[in-house]
Amino acid sequence: MAKVPTPVNEPVLAYAPGSPERAALKAALEAAAGERPEIPIVIGGDAIESGRTVDVVMPHAHGHVLATAHEASGEHVTRAIEVAMEARRSWSRTPFEDRAAIFLRAAELLTTTWRQRINAACMLGQSKTCFQSEIDAVCELADFWRFNVAFAERIYAEQPISPRGQWNRVDHRPLEGFVLAVTPFNFLSIAANLPTAPILMGNVALWKPSSTSLLGCWEMMRLLKEAGLPDGVLSLLPGAGPEQGAAALASEHLAGVHFTGSTGTFKALWRGISDGLDRYRTFPRLVGETGGKDFIVAHESADPQALVTAITRGAFEYQGQKCSAASRIYVPQAMWARVRDGVAADLETIRFGDVRDFTCFGGAVIDERAYERIAGYVKLGRDTAKVVAGGACDDAEGYFVHPTVIEVDDPKHRLMQEEIFGPVATVYPYSQPFADVLALADATSPYALTGAIFANDREAVREAEDALRDAAGNFYVNDKPTGAVVGQQPFGGARQSGTNDKAGMHLNLLRWVSPRSIKENLAPPHDYRYSFLDEA
Ligand code: NAD
Fold this sequence. Notes:
Elements: H1 20-35, E1 38-39, E2 41-43, E3 46-48, E4 53-58, E5 61-70, H2 74-91, H3 96-111, H4 115-126, H5 130-157, E6 166-174, E7 178-182, H6 188-200, E8 204-208, H7 214-227, E9 234-236, H8 241-249, E10 254-260, H9 263-275, E11 285-289, E12 294-298, H10 304-316, E13 326-332, H11 333-349, H12 368-384, E14 386-389, E15 393-394, E16 400-401, E17 404-407, H13 414-417, E18 424-430, H14 434-443, E19 447-448, E20 450-454, H15 458-467, E21 474-477, E22 494-495, H16 506-510, E23 513-521
Parallel strand pairs: 1-5, 7-8, 7-10, 8-9, 10-11, 12-13, 12-20, 13-18, 17-18, 20-21
Antiparallel strand pairs: 2-3, 4-5, 6-23, 14-17, 15-16, 19-22
Helix pairs in contact: 1-4, 2-8, 3-5, 3-7, 4-5, 4-7, 5-6, 10-11, 14-15
Bound molecules: nicotinamide-adenine-dinucleotide.
């Protein structure tokens, strides 16, 4: 087998005033804001307009329609499955070098000619700043595509021993059927990786994107076509989750689900699959990365200013709409006034607004439903705890929730337990012994995605790492709990945060192969009798 290129993380461009990338991005933003394309359903390379449409708007200027998307019905899903099963005949037999080359080329396109087009779609459609879009839609996705190729090479190289007279092989087959990729709104890198990781391993996939990331997903489909992905291997099916999910789960050919989104949706899919177990030809692989209630625990030896910066960035970047966002924070009572005032001072200087204005640190939350939910939590904070910074909500032009810090005196307050998925950080100033606080952090929420310890005392770091071993799939020491990088911090959590199959690592790709062992006898025996059968 040919050796694949050694992957390197894509450098993040700075977009500083006067830089060529900033000028190129500004031009791309202006163009994308005025284009208003029709986003079709894509099945077998055909662009289908169903006539059942939804408007794609800018969250920070919700009166501005960016695109009109055509929604797929259950029949479209059934058709996409037939097309995928047909495409599977050749794709599952396509040599690894050819599959790999398509994704290496896709990464190259993404980081060159497509870079600012994709950034513009992500910024306008999902209300990300240029930096948040760059690290997600460009760098992380390019990393997924390049590193996955190298991880796949490792998997294919994994072969058994062969004693003399035999040759043993493992054929890392794709799954027998199709993979359903159901993707969230908040990361375009995840949205594009969920269908393409199984495809790299020789599978065919159906892509059900979130209705609030359609512009970016549509651009990704176009990029993948230019990179050479054959028609039919991937279908794009915008539309309502429950209707599409039901149609996909009804097929005997469902071989896997690659999901990222809320815990509730993943459970609904899992239940639907359990109900259909007698229908499927094979046990479907279920991979789901779901919600989080991510913590920062500060020890009395913590550097208070490092903690302030970790809270400001970790809780409020991308409006707190990261599964990894810092959301419950435990601070020693004696340190709290210093930290509170530090975060409040940061928030005084931070602007949230239209992301085309590069002086904004953040944009709007994704849609009206999210706005109402998050505003409800802010109100809960006002009514039952103390809002110490922020708290303003305004949906007149865009869905804006100003970064909000809430102080609670009950460590089991709902605000310390439930995923809010918005720019709201809840702080519990503690005066109990450190060990008790670690036990609280471990037991307060059902999730276990990310978490951080801030301490200069090494023993405290060791104690926290041990006590919180099951409380987070991604654990940080003196760093914010967001911003995992492919190849550096493989990502995923357990408990109610998902199946922890670690995107950005070979472990994820292993879920998309079904190995076949092949034994070849180089000297087959010619006599059934074993020597023990002889009479002496
Ligand atoms: P969501 O669960 O609302 O939607 C996810 C996807 O599921 C969407 O495409 C939606 O249309 C679809 N869907 C909804 N109901 C369905 C059904 N019955 N059948 C099939 N599909 C259905 O999640 P979201 O709001 O897009 O994303 C936010 C959530 O995602 C948060 O909970 C966040 O923590 C989580 N998330 C987790 C990770 C991780 O790696 N753990 C990463 C990003 C986001």
